[in-house]
Each structure stands twice: as structure tokens, then as C-alpha cells.
């Protein structure tokens, strides 16, 4: 998937469980998540290009992606991909800060930063995400840029209208740092 996105000169980065492998406590993940910058209004061309190469995991994969901004694909090796169609300023910033992570002698993956991963995970706010946030806080500690995390997360919290996210993150920070 990375090679394909690069061949298209698309801006993207891996987020989710693969990035947790890099920045937090490695755990099993059944799919690979990435943000693909499509902007608003150009999503269909990205979705159609991907669906011409990779099969969707749903019969209505195209319609689902255009409605919910997540394209669900499966690669020929059986790996499932959840591709977020990115357009928000945070997503642009996140992709811009992404760096290569050497996963083997011959391969590297472009992943989001630890700071941006905390923003992604806190915004998603599922139990597994909070567990990932805790592991990133414990492993990365004071190497994290907390000003950046808060400046990116606060607008998302306002958009989601869920102030409990900030409370929960502050509680985890107090416990882990």
C-alpha cells in the first residue's frame, strides 16, 4: 500500500496500530490504518483509483468511503486497510510531520509522530485507544511535545463536543509522567 501511494505521489502516513508498534507498547493489530490526504471534494478520484487496484471489504465500499470518509480495502496478501480520507488541518499537519520508521533492513514505513498518534487515539476515545495512549505516554514520556498535542487536540474536541476527552487525557498524563 505504501509503495502504491508513493507511486501516485499521494501524501499519506500510517496511523493506528502500526504507529503504536513504533511509539507505544506493541500489540496485535488486525489491519493497517492510514491517513490519505484527499482534501474536500476530490475524494472520489482517490477512492476510484484505489478500488481499481485493491478490492473493497464491503460491496458498497465506494459509497461507504464517500459518506464516512473511510475506505475499507483488502490487499492481495490478505492485509486489511482502513484508509481515512484526510482533509482537516490536523490531518495535513500530521502527514507533514510523518517520518520513516525502519521496520527491517530493507523496509521502512511512513508513520505519524508519537504526538500526532496521541491526538488520533484520544480523539477516537475507545478503550483500546486509551490503552494505546497510556503506552505511548509511558514509553515516550517527556520526549512528547505537549504544547503540540493540545494545540491539535483542542479543536477536535470542540468539533466532537466531548470535553471528557481532555479530562481523560490529563488524568493519564498525571498518572504516567
Count of discrete structural domains: 1
Q: What is the approximate shape?
A: globular
What's the β-strand tally?
6
Between the first and last Cα atoms, what is the distance in angstroms? 36 Å
Query: Beta-strand level of the residues, as a percent range?
Result: 15-25%
Instruction: Report low-confidence residues grouped into runs of 5 or more.
Output: none
CA-based gyration radius: 16 Å
Structural class: alpha+beta
Please name the CATH architecture. Answer: 2-Layer Sandwich
Main beta-sheet annotation: 4 strands, mixed
The helical percent reads 40-55%
* Average pLDDT for all residues: 97
In order across it, which strands form the biggest sheet? 1-2-4-3
Give the C-level CATH assignment: Alpha Beta
Structural description of this entry:
The protein is of the alpha+beta class and 177 residues long. It has one domain (2-176): 2-Layer Sandwich (Beta Polymerase, domain 2). The protein is 53% helix and 18% strand. It has helices at residues 2-7, 16-23, 43-51, 61-68, 89-97, 114-124, 127-140, 146-160, 164-176, and strands at 12-15, 31-37, 70-74, 80-86, 99-102, 108-111. The strands form 2 sheets. The protein has a 4-stranded mixed beta sheet with strand order 1-2-4-3. The radius of gyration is 16 Å and the shape is globular. The N and C termini lie far apart (36 Å). The mean pLDDT is 97.
Amino acid at each position: 500500500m505504501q509503495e502504491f501511494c508513493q507511486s501516485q505521489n499521494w501524501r499519506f502516513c500510517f496511523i493506528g496500530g502500526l504507529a503504536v508498534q513504533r511509539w507505544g507498547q506493541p500489540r496485535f493489530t488486525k489491519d493497517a490504518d492510514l491517513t490519505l490526504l484527499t482534501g474536500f471534494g476530490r475524494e472520489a478520484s482517490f477512492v476510484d483509483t484505489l478500488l481499481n487496484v485493491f478490492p473493497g471489504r464491503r460491496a458498497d465500499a465506494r459509497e461507504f468511503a464517500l459518506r464516512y470518509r473511510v475506505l475499507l480495502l483488502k490487499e492481495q496478501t490478505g492485509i486489511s486497510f482502513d484508509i481515512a480520507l484526510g482533509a482537516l488541518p490536523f490531518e495535513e499537519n500530521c502527514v507533514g510531520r510523518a517520518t520513516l520508521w525502519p521496520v527491517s533492513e530493507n523496509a521502512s514505513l511512513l508513520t505519524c509522530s508519537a504526538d500526532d498518534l496521541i491526538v488520533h487515539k484520544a480523539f477516537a476515545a475507545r478503550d483500546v485507544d486509551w490503552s494505546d495512549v497510556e503506552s505511548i505516554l509511558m514509553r515516550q514520556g517527556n520526549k512528547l511535545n505537549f504544547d503540540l498535542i493540545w494545540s491539535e487536540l483542542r479543536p477536535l474536541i470542540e468539533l466532537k463536543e466531548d470535553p471528557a476527552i481532555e479530562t481523560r487525557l490529563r488524568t493519564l498524563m498525571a498518572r504516567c509522567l
